[in-house]
Amino acid sequence: MTFILGLTGGIGSGKSAASQWFETQGITVIDADIVAREIVEPGQPALAQIQECFGDWVIQSNGELDRRALREYIFKEPEARQQLEAITHPAIRTSIIQQLSAATSPYVILVSPLLFETNQHQLTHRNLLIDASEALQIQRASHRDGQSIEQIQKIISVQMPREKKQALADDVVLNDGHIDHLYHQLENLHQHYLNIAKEKKQS
Ligand code: ADP
C-alpha cells in the first residue's frame, strides 16, 4: 500500500505553500477542501440527498448548491449541521479514499485544515503539521484574502488549538521565517518520506 502523509495546519500557516512544494517534487496532493466542493457539484448523489433533506431552496437556478443560504440556515438551526455532515462526511471520505488509491506517485499527501478535527487522520500513516504563531497566521491570511483580523481570529478560535495539533502530529515544521526556510525543512522531510514509502512498498 502507498504511504499516505496527512498535511495540516491552521489558516494562514502555509499548508498550500507546502502542498505546492511537494507537488513540484512529483507528489500527488489530494485537497480535502476541493473534495468537499466536488461531492456537492450538480449530478452528485450528495447534492440530491441535501435537496431531499432540506428542500428545493438549497438549489440555485443554475443547479448549483446555494452555499450561502445553507450556511445561514445552519447558523440558525444547529441540528441541521449534523444532518448536513451525515450526508457530506461519508461522501467526502469515500472520494478521498478513491483518489488516494488511484495516486501513482512514490507517496501521496492528503491536505486538510481539519485533518484531526474530522478524523481524516485515520486515513493517513503519518501526519505533518505546518505551524505558525497566531500573529503570523493573521498577518498572512489577511494579506492573502483581505479578510478582517476579527474574521480570521474567529476562524482560528473554532480550529483545534495549536498545542493540541502539535501533540497529535508526527512531524512539525515551524513556518516562521523566509519561504526558502520552509522549503529547506520540507526537503529533509521529503527524503525521509521517500525512505518510508520505499520500506512500506517492500514490506
Ligand atoms: P494556508 O493554506 O495554511 O491557509 P497559505 O499556504 O495559503 O496558508 O499561506 C498563507 C499566505 O502566506 C499565502 O499568501 C502564502 O504565500 C504566504 N506565506 C506562506 N508561508 C510564507 C513564508 N514563510 N513567508 C512569507 N509568506 C508566506
UniProtKB/TrEMBL annotation:
HAMAP family: Dephospho_CoA_kinase (MF_00376). Gene3D superfamilies: P-loop containing nucleotide triphosphate hydrolases. Its main location: cytoplasm. It is found in: Cytoplasm. This is Dephospho-CoA kinase. InterPro entries: Depp_CoAkinase, P-loop_NTPase. The gene is coaE. Signal peptide: none annotated. It catalyses: 3'-dephospho-CoA + ATP = ADP + CoA + H(+). Its EC number is 2.7.1.24. Belongs to the CoaE family. Pfam families: CoaE (PF01121).
